[in-house]
Structures are given as structure tokens and as C-alpha cells.
TrEMBL record:
Transmembrane segments: none annotated. Residues 27-224 form the Fumarylacetoacetase-like C-terminal domain. Gene3D superfamilies: Fumarylacetoacetase-like, C-terminal domain (3.90.850.10). This is FAA hydrolase family protein. It comes from the Bacteria. Keywords: Hydrolase, Metal-binding. InterPro entries: Fumarylacetoacetase-like_C, Fumarylacetoacetase_C_sf. It holds the Pfam family FAA_hydrolase. One of its GO terms (molecular function) is metal ion binding. It comes from Teichococcus wenyumeiae.
Amino acid sequence: MRYVIEPAPETTIPVAGEEGVFPVRRIWCVGRNYADHAREMGHDPDREPPFFFSKPANAAVPGGTLPFPGQTKDLHHEVELVAAIGKGGKDIPAERALEHVYGYAIGLDMTRRDIQAEAKKLGRPWELSKGFDQSCPISPIVPAARIGHPTQGKIEITVNGKVQQTGDMNQMIWSLPEAIAYLSRYVELLPGDLIMTGTPAGVSAVKPGDTMHGTCEGVGEVTVTYAA
């Protein structure tokens, strides 16, 4: 095939203990999937149907030192368990959903909260608050064949050594199998899709020079420093 312009390089994520890498296709994020976080954002945490938003594939980047994003004065961290889809499907039943998961990582859903708040107030989309460049720092993926499918365990982030968010994966309002089943009714999930499963309470602002360290028990860790 001949391209009329040079195609962008494919976004990939390292796989822990493997030479191969995981190609990223799309990034789907479950919104307000921890009750305490829903409350801190001013919403009722009752079990209403889940909702999703997305980030572009190239938002995924490894940890390390990153430039501080522009056009925001209120950049927030949201630490999340990430599921990497290895087998596609549509209308996937919840009881078979985990068969479609290749592995897991820990990721940060970085959010320009001021831009998001303004968009909400005006009834506009969130894309510029969620899908900006390098808005999804992520750890290497660990295959489920090695660690199984985690359903509980501490998920936490520190900023400059101070704990800001902490919770347990068992506090999700919608479990990963339920989220996969629901999302696959609306889109066909394909290999390479990532699903970010929501964040616990404690989101807070970071600034240039800050270092974030996210951990997810049994899955991994990711560290990001914003350049001063």
C-alpha cells in the first residue's frame, strides 16, 4: 500500500518479561466508577449505567519525565487499573469477558480539570480535558496468564511522597467484566484496545516539578515527574 503522507508511528506499550510489545488501538475510560470519587466530584454514586469517554492511542506514554501540559492551571491525576484487550468481540457476555483480556497495567488518566469544568458548564465535550498529548502515562503490561485477573488489592498514588489517592480494586461500582460487557454492546472491542477502569477518591492538582508514583497491588507501578 502506498501512503500519500508518512503514517504516524504505532503506539506500543512494553510487556513485562517479554521482548514483544502491545500495540495500542483505542483507550476507553470508565467514568466515576468508584463511589467516593463520584461523591467528591459532586455526583450520586448509585449504580446507574456506566458511561465511557476515550483518549487517542498516542496519549499512552511510559513513565519518566514529561513536559507539563499547556493550557491548564488545574491538572489532576487519576490513578487506574488498566485492562488490555487481546481478543475482540461484540455483545460479550459478562461471564466470558475476562477471556478477552490479555493483561493489566496501571495508568494515570491525567485531566485538565479547569477545561473539563468549563466544558461541563457549557454542555460541551470533554476531549480537550482528557485526550491531550501524553495524558495517559502507563506501566508495562503484565499478562493475565502470569498474574490472573485481579479483583482486589490496593491502588494508590503519591505526589512528592505524600499519599493522595488510595483505594481497593474491589470498590469499583461496575466490575471489569460488567464494563466490558456493557461497552461491547455499543462498539466492537478489538485487540489493542485499553480499558481504564476508574479512579478512587483523592484526585488533586499537580504542578511542574512534582513527581507522581502510582502503584496497583499485584500489577505494577508507574512514576511520572513533570519537568520544572
